[in-house]
């Protein structure tokens, strides 16, 4: 199993990797993602796992019980293969590779599943191309409608449906039929933080996901000459934007929440011109739905007040918002019990990052998450990392959990 895991990881390492930064560009319906999908199909075929694809780009492979054996609801495992722009190697692919390796390990143990095991790879989890996080699992569960997805555009203006068609996909009219077979979902993920490092533990479980979302802030003003226009005569949306960024930082710190302006688009984007428009995207996260709403509301209020003083305009649009998710306590306890012999008592941690697991849990599917230690805590960066020894322990943990559920 260890050799297979490391070989899979070596196979994935060069796909979509930037020679300049060492980071990954694995956006959906691009050449890199198509190569990853081909790799996944090859790995499933090598294991005699029957592969299915829905029209939205999600993939699922089945390890079925022997013919004639009892078959209860399936256990779904997996994660995603796409990355943020200039992202790390582990966020997503670690869960997919570990799921395949866990199947290998169970077979080595002689385990015969009494329930089907489904290995899934979701599309556009990061929202790095079309702006909606977990888009594949949202379409799969019906949380996002095909009509809403059809209205999405990437940064170059390419419509979602056109990008899918160029990659050989046809949109599905609704949730995939195989979803009805799923009784529960397990997702393994690299930890995005240092909780396990502080505890000196290789693996943990997730108990909840903080509510989070993305809001578009459109600041409008008046384009003008950078030299000929007096400072007091300007209607500069960049100034309003800058003060709003500072307000978001201050309010998040005061409330113990998270607020980040990480993407901005400026028009006309000239060095010697006062801009006419600044569009920026706020990523905000809170420890409760109420705290998140209060944070975003306060940032919008202060931005609007500043716009009034600057003679500019501000419009705020929610583009992707996910409420608080509590993972199934019974399933989490059962997974924790399955891990106890090997790991002792496994901690249950909150996740401040969104995951496909959160979408499936919100749709009513009992869901649990496993974390693998991240020695630096860095994520969404080329520096993201996990030690191979910890990754292999994660495979054992996932296999132990699966064995308890399907054997």
UniProtKB/TrEMBL annotation:
Q: How is the cofactor bound?
A: Binds 2 Zn(2+) ions per subunit.
Keywords from the named record: Hydrolase, Metal-binding, Zinc
**Where is Zn(2+) 2 annotated to bind?**
91, 126, 380
Q: Which cofactor does it need?
A: Zn(2+)
Against InterPro entries, the record matches this protein to: Amidase_Cbmase, Bact_exopeptidase_dim_dom, Peptidase_M20
Positions that bind allantoate: 214, 272, 285
What domain of life is recorded for the organism?
Bacteria
Q: Which GO terms describe its molecular function?
A: hydrolase activity, acting on carbon-nitrogen (but not peptide) bonds, in linear amidines; metal ion binding
Q: Hydrolase among the record's keywords?
A: yes
**Residues annotated to bind Zn(2+) 1:** 80, 91, 189
**What family does the database annotate?**
Belongs to the peptidase M20 family.
PANTHER family referenced in this protein's UniProt entry, alphabetically: ALLANTOATE AMIDOHYDROLASE, ALLANTOATE DEIMINASE-RELATED
Q: Output this protein's name.
A: N-carbamoyl-L-amino-acid hydrolase
């Amino acid at each position: 199993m260890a050799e297979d895991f490391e070989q899979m990881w070596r196979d994935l390492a060069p796909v979509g990797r930037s020679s300049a930064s060492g980071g990954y560009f694995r956006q959906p319906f691009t050449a890199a993602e198509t190569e990853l999908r081909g790799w996944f199909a090859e790995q499933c075929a090598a294991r005699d796992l029957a592969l299915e694809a829905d029209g939205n780009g999600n993939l699922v492979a089945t390890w079925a019980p022997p013919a004639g054996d009892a078959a209860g609801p399936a256990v779904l495992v997996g994660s995603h293969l796409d990355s943020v722009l200039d992202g790390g190697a582990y966020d997503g692919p670690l869960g997919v590779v570990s799921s395949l390796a866990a199947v290998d390990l169970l077979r080595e143990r002689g385990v015969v599943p009494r329930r089907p095991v489904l290995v899934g790879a979701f599309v556009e989890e990061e929202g790095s191309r079309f702006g909606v996080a977990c888009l594949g699992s949202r379409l799969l569960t019906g949380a996002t409608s095909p009509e809403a997805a059809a209205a999405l555009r990437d940064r170059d203006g390419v419509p979602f449906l056109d990008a899918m068609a160029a990659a050989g996909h046809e949109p599905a009219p609704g949730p995939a039929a195989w979803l009805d077979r799923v009784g529960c979902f397990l997702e393994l993920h690299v930890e995005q933080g240092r909780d396990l490092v502080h505890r000196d533990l290789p693996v943990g479980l997730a108990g909840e996901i903080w509510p989070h979302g993305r809001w578009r802030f459109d600041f409008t003003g008046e384009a003008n000459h950078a030299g000929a226009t007096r400072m007091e005569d300007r209607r500069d949306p960049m100034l309003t934007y800058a003060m709003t960024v500072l307000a978001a930082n201050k309010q998040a710190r005061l409330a113990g929440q998270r607020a980040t302006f990480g993407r901005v688009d400026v028009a006309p984007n000239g060095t010697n011109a006062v801009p006419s428009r600044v569009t920026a995207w706020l990523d905000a996260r809170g420890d409760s739905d109420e705290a998140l709403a209060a944070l975003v509301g306060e940032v919008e209020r202060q931005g609007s007040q500043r716009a009034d003083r600057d003679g500019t305009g501000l419009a705020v649009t929610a583009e992707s918002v996910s409420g608080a998710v509590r993972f199934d306590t019974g399933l989490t306890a059962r997974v924790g019990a399955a891990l106890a012999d090997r790991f002792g008592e496994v901690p249950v941690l909150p996740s401040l990052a969104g995951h496909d697991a959160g979408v499936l849990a919100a749709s009513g599917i009992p869901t649990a998450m496993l974390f693998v230690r991240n020695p630096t805590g860095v994520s969404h960066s080329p520096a993201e990392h996990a030690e191979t020894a910890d990754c292999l322990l994660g495979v054992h943990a996932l296999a132990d959990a699966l064995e308890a559920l399907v054997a």
